[in-house]
Amino acid sequence: MITFSDQNAPPEPTEDADFANHVTFLLGKIINRCLSVDSQALTALEWEDMKANLDKWRSSLPSSFDTIQTPGLGKQSSFPSIWALRSWHVSTLHYYHTAMGIMWLAQPAIQPLKALQRINEMECLRRKLEYHATEICALALSSDSAPVWVNAFGPIAFCSPWLHNTQKRVEMAQELEKWGKVTGWPVSIIAEALSPPSNTTH
Description:
By secondary structure, this protein is an all-alpha fold. It has one domain. The protein contains seven helices and two strands. It has helices at about 15-35, 45-60, 85-105, 115-140, 145-160, 165-185, 190-195; strands at about 70, 80-85. A two-stranded antiparallel sheet has the order 1-2. Helix 2 runs antiparallel to helix 3 (about 85-105), helix 3 (about 85-105) runs antiparallel to helix 4 and helix 4 (about 115-140) packs antiparallel against helix 5. The longest helix is centred in the middle third of the chain and has 27 residues, at about 115-140. The N and C termini lie far apart (about 40 Å). The mean pLDDT is about 90.
């Protein structure tokens, strides 16, 4: 595990590359704190501080990171057509959405919940996770850059199980297989996890 110390944190971002480096640092800290086998559950204060850092980063992004939506102009897809100005902007946004997914999973319960409250909370969490998974997949699908695909394999592997739409899962699995052939990366495990069982009728 790589150690991420606040003393080694990147300076406050001003250029596009700074924002990319900064979210990589934030994601690394979040992974270490939340996904380590031996890590304790986050306290409410810890979670709020980490979430605030992500929110601050997101709100300070320059307009060059704004995504472009072109419904109906790209290839036919069950995902929205979302583009970024440059390929490394896509990877930067992938890291942000991955970090947000982890944060929602790690959010501590503020108080004990009744059954109906728990159902509502679970549905709210499902929608949040599916939103970030959809953004990650849509950005990768709208790109024709092999480096983007390679950088997307990790975020897709982590987040794509939150896709509940069968058509989206099948499309993503098919695209992953294509990207794997182009890049030479072993992605069959990710694709197989998204594919429905062969004996299932749709």
